[in-house]
Every structure is written in C-alpha cells, then in structure tokens.
Amino acid sequence: MDFSALKSNFKGEVFTDNIHRIIYATDASAYREMPLAVCVPMDNEDIRAVICFAHDNGLSIIPRASGTSIAGQVVGNGIVVDVSKNFGKVLELNEEGKWIRIQPCVVLDELNKYLAPHNLFFGPETSTSNRCMISGMVGNNSCGSHSLIYGSTRDHLLEVNAYCQMVRMLLLENYRARNSMQNANFSRLRATYTAISAVCFRKRRWLMK
C-alpha cells in the first residue's frame, strides 16, 4: 500500500516500517495483529485526512490511546491512529455549569488531579487509572469497583464531537445523562473529550475531604 498521498497532507507522523508496526501490533491483551501503518495525528485535520485516505482505499482505522485494553480493541490489520501523543489537553472548565471539555487522551488520574482543587472528580474509576485515557473509557464504557455508586462512563457522558465515515463532524448528545443531571439533587460535573474529536462528561463532588 502506497501511503505517499496521506503523508503529503499530514502534519503528524506516518510510519510504515516494521519496527513501528510490530510495536503497535499488540496492546495489554494477548492478541497480536500487524497493522498496515501507524499514524500519529497532530490535530483534527490530520484525523480527517486519515479517515479520508482509509475511506478512499477501503481500509479500516483503529483509534488507539494508551493501549491498556485486555481484549484487543486497539489491535487490527488496518491503520492504527495513535491519538495519545497530541490530544491530551483540558480545553475548558465551567465551574458554574459544572462541566469540563477535554481532549480524548487526558489520563484519568491527571483529570482528577486537575479537578481536585475545585472539589470535583470523575466518578468511574478503573484499575489502570494512572495511565488509561478518557477516549478508551468512552469506547469501553469503563466503570470500576464502585460502579453501583458512581455508574459507568456513559452515565456521565454528555456530548461527543466525532467524525463519521464520510468525514463529517457530528455532535452526539446523551440526552439521558443531561436530563438526569438536571434532575439530580447533588452537584455533578460533566466533561467533554475531543477523542477523534470531542466528548462531554459529568462529574461528582467529593463525598469527603
């Protein structure tokens, strides 16, 4: 497969050498499958370029963050898109509205460290919280040992900005989460993540100091 057309319109990095393909052939699971290429996008336009290239050539894309999955979700024979390097910023925190907008590859523990001074936190906690990223939590609907109290990720997800197959930017809203947040009698925080674009969650106040 010739990736020169993609490379010419790509600000990030495109790897087709065996070393990078072998590295990205595995995650935390026991599965292994060699990708055709590995792309490290610099911004949303790079993501759009990868989707266009894959669509035009009949290829699949495998978005990848920290690769902590133990079920092989980020392993495949298409184009691995590693968004973990350049999509880890907090974009906006609205204290009054109790919501936060972030890029997809903010690490869960880092997110909660950022929220701690505001007496807020993101409820779903995973055993890999010091390295797992929000985009993976959204994709897997992660929860944790206290899911009966805090619920799963989808219970806090308010909004996602994402590219569809035809490279259109879509705004996907979780009306159930929004309605339950409005009707709740305790303070919560939502969050927005720009995974292959952007997402929005809600969060809770600390139950104790």
Structural class: alpha/beta
| Number of DSSP-assigned strands | 11
The number of distinct helices, counting runs of at least 4 residues, comes to 7
Mind summarizing the main beta sheet? 7 strands, mixed
The CATH topology annotation of the largest domain reads as Uridine Diphospho-n-acetylenolpyruvylglucosamine Reductase, domain 3
Tell me which CATH architecture of the largest domain applies here. 2-Layer Sandwich
N-to-C span: 56 Å
Query: DSSP strand (E) fraction?
Result: 25-35%
| Number of structural units classed as domains | 2
At the first level of CATH, what is the class of the largest domain?
A: Alpha Beta
Q: What gross morphology would you assign?
A: globular
Computed Rg: 18 Å
Q: pLDDT under 50 segments (min length 5)?
A: 179-198, 205-209
Percent helix among the residues?
Answer: 25-40%
